[in-house]
Amino acid sequence: MGKNSRERHKAKRKAAEAAQRRRSAGPADAGDPLGLFGAPRVPSQLELAEQIIDQAVHAQHGEQGAALDRCRSLLITGPGGAAGIQVVNRALLARLLHDVEQAWRRGWQPAELVRAARRECSARHGRLMVDGIAARMRGYPKAAVDQRWQAQLTILDARVWWEHDDNYVTVWGDRQGLDRAAVITVMIEVLHLLATLPAIEVVGPAPGDARPATAAAPADLDQRMLDRVRALLAKAESTEFPDEADAFTAKAQELMARHRIDHALLVAATGERDQPVTRRIAVDNPYEAPKSLLLQVVAEANSCRAVWGKRFAFTTVVGFPSDLDSTELLFTSLLVQATRAMTQAKSTTDEYGRNTTRSFRQSFLTAYASRIGERLSAATGEVGQEAAVSADSAQFLPVLAARDDAVRDVFEKQFPQLTHHRSTINNRQGWASGRAAADRASLHGRHAVAHD
């Protein structure tokens, strides 16, 4: 082989080896077409913006003020000048949508994300969260979204009101009356909140996992029952006469108890598959603990189990769907009645002249919840005894026992470890007034409120 041939073969071998190295190096060296291996790869503007956002969220979490300020400055001016601002805007919205989706997969529902943003930050952060939810929902057909999610989206008025995503950050700031620095601050705070929200119990299918709802006769019957209950409770809330409120509320609970028994027997007779589900109900300040106690005793009276999550102020309730509807309706009505009675009752000052309004109202609501639990339990027990007499108890009792067991099994699986907080009563006048108000307003409850 001549010298020239040897050189050509050598050059071909080197080229083949270089090509093999490029294939082995993968995407990280795809931007190095000349084969200058070892040279640093320059990130694109978008990649750089994403890195800065990620560093800003980490700095926010670690309370690293100087690092956070540097990241904010880069996001305000944009990497690479004016053209980089639009790149940053695109990256911020994309990160918001991604983190909203991740929160959904960790169990959070739309209304809960917005509520968390408002509680942990401000109403403005809540509005940004609503927009992030609306933008992310564009990726899902309506048929793939659970009906309860759709209802939440409607209540939140979650809709895409801006014309183009690249302009969203700018027009959102204009709408809120904020300069770019303030907008960047709010967005980083929302992204930090989303990144640090813990995983919670999944209570229904996330978008994309829902199946189209099918109409069924029991659902129609449930709706008619709920409409009657709503009408009774509305009367209880509107009347100024305690005896009338008591009668309307007692009638509503009796109707719900009878419906629960009839529904259970119908399902057992038809062989339909009816399983417990989970629902979360918001319980807001002030006086979250006694309000949660009220929800707990109402849930127990309706064959459900409840646990209060203190940090984010919601109670998780496990039960059959119609029983959960009954629980939520009755709790809402009783809370309205309790609040009205509490604000009408006058607290006093103590022997040192200090105002006792807060301790009075805390004790009032705790006593109210305790007494309501006793009366609801008694009313439900009477309906059960009547049903057992009129129906075949050999069929009736096992059906209800099986449903109670099913609820307990699901609840204990979700909450294998619970702590209990015992309410403290330090205002006798508030306790007495709360008991009296519960006797006037409506229907065995425990003093302990479960915490997850």
Automatic annotation (TrEMBL):
InterPro entries membership: DUF2786, DUF7168
Domain DUF7168: residue ranges: 290-391
Q: From which domain of life does this come?
A: Bacteria
Region of interest: Disordered: 1-36
The residue ranges flagged as biased composition, category Basic residues, are 1-13
Cited Pfam families: DUF2786, DUF7168
Give every DUF2786 domain span.
224-263
Recorded protein name is DUF2786 domain-containing protein
Record the organism.
Paractinoplanes rhizophilus
